[in-house]
Write a structure and sequence with these properties.
With 236 residues, the chain is an alpha/beta fold. It is 48% helix and 13% strand. Helix 8 links the parallel strand 6 and strand 7. The radius of gyration is 17 Å and the shape is globular.
């Protein structure tokens, strides 16, 4: 018997990590401080969620303000990185509900657990350190925006994870995230399932606009989904 799914790729903030939107609040503050704007968190989340953060700033500027200025975006990004490092030092950050329980279940079943993120590697690793999550123990790999030439919605991060574990067929991979762009990433990679979760940036209606295979409210719902998928695809 062969499992149909042997890797689950998880987004971090809003999906497996509960950081109360620290990243996007910090991003909003950097944009408003440098540019003199008054963008709301809702506006920032609508255009920035899940993206590599410099690209996220450029997207927010273009879509919310009709501003196309790379030098301005870079100044905002520099302030964002500085302020985010401080925020992570002082703010409380927790595993998202049932994340660690799900990681343990997947490990027991021999399914790889990969984190991927629009953060750069330094930021992502500082987040793992604060959560006391260890690569090789709590999760099997961390793939970040700074590890690949193209970021979401391109599938490069998922493809890199597959290469790392010598998985050649994306039909053995599931992607889950809390933003539209997470779903699009999984779809572009050809994943067996692209799943949205309502614990982060985008609500159920926004997630459904990307035509995911499922929209869930709790990470443990993944267990039943995988069981159904593996039963229907198991080969002898």
């Amino acid at each position: 018997m062969k499992e149909a799914i042997n890797m689950v790729v998880f987004d971090m903030a809003g999906t497996t990590v509960n950081e109360n939107n620290i990243v996007y609040k910090t991003l909003r503050n950097a944009i408003n401080t440098v540019g003199g704007y008054e963008l709301t968190l809702t506006e920032v989340l609508a255009h920035a969620a899940g993206k590599e953060k410099l690209q996220a700033i450029k997207t927010v500027l273009k879509n919310s303000l009709d501003v196309d200025d790379d030098e301005l975006a870079q100044r905002m990004f520099t302030l964002f990185l500085k302020d985010l490092e401080h925020a992570y030092e002082v703010e409380e950050i927790y595993p998202n509900s049932n994340a660690e329980e799900l990681f343990a279940i997947l490990k027991e079943r021999g399914i790889l657990r990969v984190l991927n993120t629009g953060y750069d590697r330094k930021t992502a690793e500082s987040l793992l350190e604060k959560l006391n999550w260890k690569v090789g123990k709590d999760v099997d790999a961390l793939i970040t925006a700074s590890d690949v030439p193209r970021n979401r919605p391109y599938p490069d991060m998922i493809h890199l994870a597959m290469q790392k574990f010598e998985i050649t067929d994306p039909g053995f991979v599931v992607k889950i995230g809390d933003s539209i762009i997470d779903i699009q990433e999984g779809q572009q990679a050809g994943c067996a399932l692209s799943i949205g979760i309502t614990t982060g940036a985008h609500d159920a209606a926004q997630l459904r606009s990307a035509n995911p295979d499922y929209v869930i409210d709790d990470l443990l719902e993944i267990v039943e989904i995988l069981e159904k998928k593996n039963i229907s695809n198991t080969v002898v």
